[in-house]
């Protein structure tokens, strides 16, 4: 029987407190069930996930362009960037089919994520590779001949570990990035697998845009990885990731509360208008007065009053001068 090697990390009081706090937030979201039922919200968050994960890797497409690519519209942009979006969307849509404990599925995910982009798509790298900051080498990946064994052992630990899924997902994420098993796409696959592990615990994690906060705190993300590399264990990275997840869940709970509170006070007609508007903003960066008129079938003056009322209720933010004004979700 193969001997399992456990990755080094410590379970601190801070980590235990975060696991508890996240569990409380998960309970609130699961009780409402709105997130799982709302297909528009799910798609909106999936698009944010893909946009953020690719933006971390220097993909140049805007959120609106990513949305257009996913919706099958033509976009003027580098073909490589468009293909990255198409590939990422395909594999995130197949998340339910993947086994989080399977190396075979990991290689399949990499094959789809990097299809037509790199030579060693769906295969572990055959040459040395490192992580660079400009010209400076900050981490050298595992030698190619040791990669299959180390990844196999990581999956063995993941399958057998009795740790909480929140901790297992963070440890796997860190160890995977440390091994750096692929020619390219390590960051994208590491973040995908993190979401996969959590989604097997609570389904809504498949649509939760944790990557948006990783992008927001990108500098801190790499600092946590580098400090864990120096420490020789992943405790700091676990703490960082749990803080990110907690913040994501708090935002989700507060946004839903705020939206529900505003909608409850509205007439049935305006409730329907808000639903249509939020659906539109789930697929587009912003909306103008003219676009709102067309979408909702209302006059210019009614659209202006309606949009401004949502600004007052903190659901929207107005950007730009009067005639060129756009409205975005807060």
UniProtKB/TrEMBL annotation:
Residues in Fido domain copies: 101-243
Keyword ATP-binding: yes
Pfam family, one: Fic
Source organism, top-level taxon: Bacteria
GO molecular function, one term: DNA-binding transcription factor activity
Residues annotated for ATP binding in this entry: 184-191, 221-222, 229
Active site: 180
Keywords, ordered alphabetically: ATP-binding, Nucleotide-binding, Transcription, Transcription regulation
Positions bearing the site annotation: Important for autoinhibition of adenylyltransferase activity: 57
UniProt-listed PANTHER family: FIDO DOMAIN-CONTAINING PROTEIN, FIDO DOMAIN-CONTAINING PROTEIN DDB_G0283145
Name of protein: Fic family protein
Protein's organism: Fusobacterium periodonticum 1_1_41FAA
